[in-house]
């Protein structure tokens, strides 16, 4: 691989791999909503983490300053990413590491396969890595006859169950203890058939299963949370210590990392080591932080490789409004507070990246015209909880709206017939562009009253508005708008506004309650 | 003070009583209320749905309508519409490359207040019963809507005003800060998720034992009230302005067809 290529191709390449949804969000959401066990598991888990996060964040008097610092650092990194990548490469290489640049998922997968092949290995251990999920590395290696064993406990559970993670930090958030025991009994070779669902027993079973793997594997694959440019150092943050086993025991270590994970210097790490654990697991400090710089004589892996992955990141970077999505440190705080994620779970988002950040990151990396991913920016009520929670202050609601506009624009003039939404928006644009227009339309309010009938509510509307009346009534409109009343009754300011006792209805106000 | 009323499209067309209540409160305090006749809507629905070019005439209209009137401050009984005027209008003007319009949008936005913010921060109302004569002898709960809470940072302003109304009992709402699931066209595009969110909201409201749920955004109340009505609940929704406007002499009626969800028992 070339070491002169600076990671920024002339034309942004869109990402591939596990970034694309296979069905639109509303459809997938509908299916997931039907799974009441999932909803119960998720609701419980997100609320628990949410409360914990609020507690530990509340302990820090300078939390807002930390968020600002994190956000500013990331902004600075994005502004000079090519330069920092070059600096990192120099320092990493000088310490005996080898860098590989991968433009997309396919390139990255091939690089990793070749590196494993060079070691003559057909088995690797892995510590949780979003990047390898994103490029579908496990599936690819399996096709090539190489078995990849996840060592993060939750990741292991999901892998054994032939399932996909549904949360970036708690991949098995959608499973409970009994389900996990059943998976172990079914899929773990040599497991004690008397296994119970007590957490200690489950952890013990996983530990002995993993220990065998750690001791036999010649190659390990990891992700990285941060890369420090002026030192050439990589960092992985985890809570079980299995990652540390991967990073130190095997002969060969291959790290796959998105190009956006850079930090300029050691000093910057301090801010993120405070932001990340509190935002993600609600802990003051994470249990294991591993840092490594190239190869060290007589200690740790002999061959240290880093695959620097673009896979749509430069496309996201090219989007001025959307690029701050690359600031994401994958803490999962946004999904833990998201009312949409809480009810649908991660699978509804299709991509490796679920929840609010997934709803912007996936379409930014694949391009908004990518089939099905264009429904993701609408998977939000824009309540803003994600923006409040994000430790690096990514304005997710603003980017969602920006991507919606891109989606609408990309479809303009391409359809034979405008959609119902197009027509609604066009009509409303006319109605709302003048008080006269709206006043004219409001003359039709009595018609709505007739439609509402004696019950004084509308229970069924046609077309897309039918989505509303599937679960909600619409009240009968008043017989007169405020505008109409004002024009008649309030022209003389001296008249004053009476409190409307029965303003536009035949409601009875006898004043009895006084 | 001369105060311009921004009635918002939903209040104007569906809840005129809430706009009249807003006028009544301000006039009771001795202020002059004007209604810029050209106003229509803030355009939030267009922006949030991604229809920016369609939002431009709506935003331009709002700016022109409020510029054509002489006033000290503008007020709307809606957190989300005020947030749109303050935060989205300059962005929409920028999107069509009109720097002059952007500056005008900023100016109008800076003078626009959400009702509880105007009452609390500008007019110094801390005790609705004493200063406004508000009287509402009912058992209510309160839903703070997302945009008021997170975009305008209204904090406890609405709740404090509500609690200071004479005769009222305010029940705390479990998980109050959770979105009700309205989200404008989200409720149409993702109707199933929206419904799931609404069901949790109405369940929490019903669990308080309150007769009605109050709040500062007519659209959220329309959504929540519509859900309660469909569930056949006797609990209904009522805007904060209507409650503040209610007095002993002229109590607001809590029966009638502008409320969804049936009558409120006394
Ligand atoms: S977007 Fe922010 S809150 Fe969400 S995972 Fe990334 S850093 Fe965390």
TrEMBL record, chain A:
The reply on keyword Metal-binding is: yes
Q: Which residues cross the membrane?
A: none
Which residue stretches does the UniProt record annotate as biased composition, category Polar residues? 502-514
> Which InterPro entries does the record associate with it?
4Fe4S_Fe-S-bd, 4Fe4S_Fe_S_CS, FTHF_cligase-like_sf, Helical_ferredxn, LUD_dom, LutB/LldF, NagB/RpiA_transferase-like
Task: Domain (4Fe-4S ferredoxin-type): give its ranges.
Answer: 325-394
Q: Which UniProt keywords apply?
A: 4Fe-4S, Electron transport, Iron, Iron-sulfur, Metal-binding, Repeat, Transport
Where in this protein does the record put region Disordered?
464-514
Provide the taxonomic classification. Bacteria, Bacillati, Actinomycetota, Actinomycetes, Micrococcales
**A GO MF label:** metal ion binding
Q: Where in the numbering of this chain does the LUD domain appear?
A: 85-295
Query: One GO BP annotation here?
Result: lactate metabolic process
Signal sequence, renumbered to the chain = none
Protein known as: LutB/LldF family L-lactate oxidation iron-sulfur protein
Automatic annotation (TrEMBL), chain B:
For this record, the Gene Ontology CC terms, alphabetical, are: cytosol
Could you tell me which residue ranges the Cysteine-rich domain spans? 3-85, 140-224
- Superkingdom, taxonomy of origin: Bacteria
> What molecular function does GO assign, one term?
oxidoreductase activity
What PANTHER family does this protein's entry cite?
A: LACTATE UTILIZATION PROTEIN A (PTHR30296:SF0), UNCHARACTERIZED PROTEIN YKGE (PTHR30296)
Q: What is this protein called?
A: (Fe-S)-binding protein
Q: Which organism is it from?
A: Arthrobacter gengyunqii
